[in-house]
C-alpha cells in the first residue's frame, strides 16, 4: 500500500552557497576552493568535530549538508538513531581515487596513504554521517549518471512502509575535481512539504 | 633532537590533518593516542608510512609501533637511532 510521504526539510550546497528549504542561507566567494569553503562553514557553525578535517571532500560535503538538515529538522535523538539513509551520486569516490592513484603511480616513490585510501569508497559518506549522529538505520548508496528521484523515492518509501525506518535521509552528493553538488532531504510520514518524485525533481532542478 | 621533535610535530599536524593544533600545543611527552592527541588506528598507519617515507624506517611489528608511538619524545629518540635517511 502506497503512503503519502512528506518532506521535513531539504538542503542544497553548490557553487559555494547553501540553501535550506529553498531559501539561501549562506553565500561565499565563488573563487574559494571547496576545501576552503567547507572549512569556513565548519568554523562558522562551530561544529567542534575534529574528524571533519580528516575526511575527503565528498564526505565533508555530505557531512555539512546533513548538519544543516538535521539542525533544521529538530528530530528526537531516538528517531535520528533509526533514520535510514539513501544517497547517490555520479562520480562515486573518483575524486579521492585519483588522489590515491597519485600516491602509487611511481613505483620508486610508492607510499599509499592509509588516510586517503579509506575514502576510496563512496558510501563511506553514509558511515561518516552515521558516526556523527549515532545512526544505525538501514542504508543504501547508488551510483547513476544523474539524480534518479524515482529510484530514491521507491527505496525510501519501501523502508518506511516496511517499518525499517520512520525517517529517511535521501539525496545526491557528488564531487568531481572542482565541481560539487549536494542535495539532501528528509522524508517521513509527517513533514512540511508534500513528497513525490515529481516534486523532488522540481525542487532539485529549481534550487 | 629539538629540531627533529619540532619537525615531527609539524609533520603530525600536517599529515594527520590536526587542524585545531599548533606545534606549541603538542608537548614532547603528550600521549599521541588515547586521551592525548586522540589519534586513531588510521593515524597509526599514516605514521608508519611517514617513518618509511621520511626516515627510511620500516616498522613491521605492531608491538614495536605501539612502543614507538607513545609520544613525540619517544618517537624522536627512536628515529634518531634508526633512521636511514
Structural features, described:
- Chain A has about 210 residues and is an alpha+beta fold.
- Chain A contains eight helices and eight strands.
- In chain A, strands 1, 2, 3, 4, 5, 6, 7 and 8 form an eight-stranded mixed sheet that branches.
- The model of chain A has no long low-confidence stretch (mean pLDDT about 95).
- The relative contact order of chain A is 0.24.
- Chain A has one domain (about 5-205): Peroxisomal Thiolase, Chain A, domain 1 (3-Layer(aba) Sandwich).
- Chain B has a single domain (about 1-80), classed as ACP-like (Non-ribosomal Peptide Synthetase Peptidyl Carrier Protein, Chain A, Orthogonal Bundle), CATH 1.10.1200.
- In chain B, about 55% of the residues lie in helices and about 0% in strands.
- Chain B contains four helices and no strands.
- In chain B, helix 1 (about 1-15) crosses helix 4.
- The longest helix of chain B is centred in the middle third of the chain and has 15 residues, at about 40-55.
What is the topological layout?
The complex is a heterodimer of chains A (207) and B (85).
Chain A: E1 6-14, E2 17-20, E3 23-27, H1 34-44, H2 57-73, H3 77-81, E4 84-89, H4 94-104, H5 114-117, H6 124-133, E5 139-143, H7 149-161, E6 167-176, E7 179-188, E8 193-194, H8 197-206
Parallel strand pairs in A: 4-5, 4-6
Antiparallel strand pairs in A: 1-2, 1-7, 1-8, 2-3, 6-7
Chain B: H1 2-15, H2 41-55, H3 62-68, H4 72-82
Helix pairs in contact in B: 1-4
**How confident is the prediction overall: mean pLDDT of chain B?**
92
**Helical content class of chain B:** 55-70%
Put simply, the count of helices of chain B is 4
Provide the CATH superfamily of chain B. ACP-like
User: Major β-sheet of chain B, in short?
Assistant: none
Largest sheet of chain A, in brief, is: 8 strands, mixed
Seen as an oligomer or otherwise, the chain set is: heterodimer
**Average pLDDT of chain A, to the nearest integer?**
96
* Strands of chain B, count: 0
Helix/strand/pairing class of chain B, anyone? mainly alpha
From the N-terminal CA to the C-terminal CA of chain B, the straight-line distance is 15 Å
CATH class of chain B: Mainly Alpha
CATH architecture of chain A, by name, is: 3-Layer(aba) Sandwich
Shape of chain A: globular
Query: Which regions of chain B have little confidence, pLDDT < 50, spanning 5+ residues?
Result: none
Rounded Rg of chain A: 17 Å
CATH secondary-structure class of chain A: Alpha Beta
Our estimate of the beta-strand percent of chain B is under 5%
Order of helices and strands of chain A: EEEHHHEHHHEHEEEH
When the domains of chain B are counted, the total is: 1
Proper CATH architecture of chain B = Orthogonal Bundle
